[in-house]
Write a structure and sequence with these properties.
This protein has 438 residues and is of the alpha+beta class. The chain is built from eight helices and 29 strands.
Length: 438
């Protein structure tokens, strides 16, 4: 059994020129790299490494490595999905051979913040196999007339757990996965159709949908750490704590999101995580999640970041919006991202236009609010900008956010995550997918 393993694992958002390193079985004589279904590089020996141009945009796509033997037959394959949600830690299982017999399994873990692994376990056909401190395990003798399931688990120092199940047999190793994907749709009719047959398709092929749900919602707000002071100054009627009463109870009701909504803030200030031989990871710090029944828009707007960074600390609004968008896909919830524009200059790697298109591709509605009054100058970059510098404007912007969430549903569709982004809806069903890769 020959194997290819990606040593370069893209756990975050990625674009532009990137180096891809592979670990390749000796039986593999050449490797073809495919990106989004097209060949982008061919490797014929060590070092099994290539520089790939992923393009200037943030685009969900699959990176595939196909291995061929000396006769040109495919004998190994590995893949990873780019720019869609991935766990903070992942695990690869490398099966090494000697004299055409599988003898050792090596567990390779990757953590987004480069945190080391603490321990690992390995099962072969549900039977435990000892894993050494080097995360290698000697395999028992196996009958290769039928497939075997190898299951690994690696626990990292911060408690993150990465798991991988691999089926190994005479020719390939295959990861075990699910093909049911949650797809965000908007309702254009009051009643959900009794049958979902014929409601969804991709490339002209009908897809099976198993359920339509009104799940809990997640609203993520991206705002400058300094914006809270501006909000308090503009809207003194909004309490900065949690009193039992407001002076304006009607405003309190109007700034309340539905009780089944979770609220989160993602601060547009990065923290760096590095490790020897690994690329530096830049991560945005989120607030704790809070129920809308306890907070509401007032909590999102007045919540402070401590300690407040000085004015020289780069703010990366667009990059943070992209991260907020991809994180909101996790767990298949209704969702929205709200960007509160501040006065600081945006020093993002990605432009607002690129990020807007990315959120459209992955199906995450974006609302842009300004605390500095109308910003027609930003229409070309951020699109429509809501003026929340007045109480009337804040009421209206909150109502639009609430109404958008109420129209959302989650459809569970038989398609892989990439194919799910291309799903089209039948108008007669009144369920239209939000994602826009077509």
């Amino acid at each position: 059994m020959a194997q290819i393993v990606f040593l370069t694992v893209f756990l975050g958002l990625v674009s532009g020129i990137q180096t891809v390193d592979l670990q390749v079985d000796p039986a593999v004589k050449s490797v073809q790299l495919q990106l989004g279904g097209r060949r982008v590089a061919t490797l014929s020996g060590t070092p099994w490494s290539a520089q790939l141009d992923l393009g200037p945009e943030l685009v969900p796509m699959e990176l595939v490595a196909v291995g061929y033997d000396a006769q040109g037959f495919e004998i190994a394959r590995a893949s990873q999905v780019l720019n869609l949600p991935r766990p903070a830690a992942e695990l690869a299982i490398v099966i090494k051979t000697e004299k055409d017999r599988q003898v050792v399994a090596e567990l390779l873990g990757r953590h987004r913040m480069h945190i080391p692994a603490r321990r690992a376990t390995l099962l072969v056909d549900a039977a435990a196999v000892h894993v050494g401190d080097d995360f290698r395990a000697k395999l028992p003798r196996l009958d290769w007339s039928h497939p075997h399931v190898v299951s690994g688990e690696m626990i990292f120092e911060d408690g993150q757990v990465a798991r991988r199940d691999v089926v190994i047999h005479g020719g390939f190793s295959d990861s075990v996965g699910s093909e049911l994907t949650p797809v965000l749709v908007t309702t254009t009719r009051q009643q959900t159709p009794k049958s979902l047959e014929g409601c969804f398709s991709a490339n002209g092929v009908l897809l099976r949908a198993s359920a339509i749900e009104k799940t809990n919602a997640l609203v993520t707000m991206v705002k400058d750490p300094d914006a809270s002071e501006v909000i308090v100054r503009l809207h003194p009627e909004i309490p900065t704590t949690k009193p039992r009463w407001w002076t304006d109870r009607a405003l309190r009701r109007e700034l309340r999101l539905d009780a089944d909504t979770t609220e989160r803030i993602l601060w547009p200030v990065t923290k760096k995580f590095s490790a020897p031989g690994e690329p530096t990871a830049l991560l945005f710090e989120p607030s704790d999640d809070i129920s809308a029944s306890e907070g509401g828009v007032s909590w999102l707007l007045t919540r402070e970041y401590r300690p407040v960074p000085d004015e020289t600390t780069p703010r990366q609004y667009a990059d943070a919006v992209a991260v907020a968008g991809v994180k909101s896909l996790v767990r298949g919830r209704r969702r929205a991202v709200v960007l509160v524009l501040g006065q600081a200059r945006d020093q993002s790697h990605n432009s607002p236009a690129v990020v807007r298109r990315y959120l459209e591709r992955i199906g995450v509605p974006l609302f842009v609010w300004s605390v500095e009054g109308p910003r027609p100058d930003l229409r070309g970059s951020w699109g429509r900008v809501e003026d929340v510098s007045t109480t009337a404007g804040l009421r209206e912007a909150t109502a639009k956010l609430n109404n958008a969430l109420k129209e959302q549903r989650i459809a569970w569709i038989a398609a892989d995550p990439l194919a799910a982004l291309k799903v089209e809806g039948n108008e007669r069903c009144g369920l239209m997918p939000v994602a826009g890769i077509h």
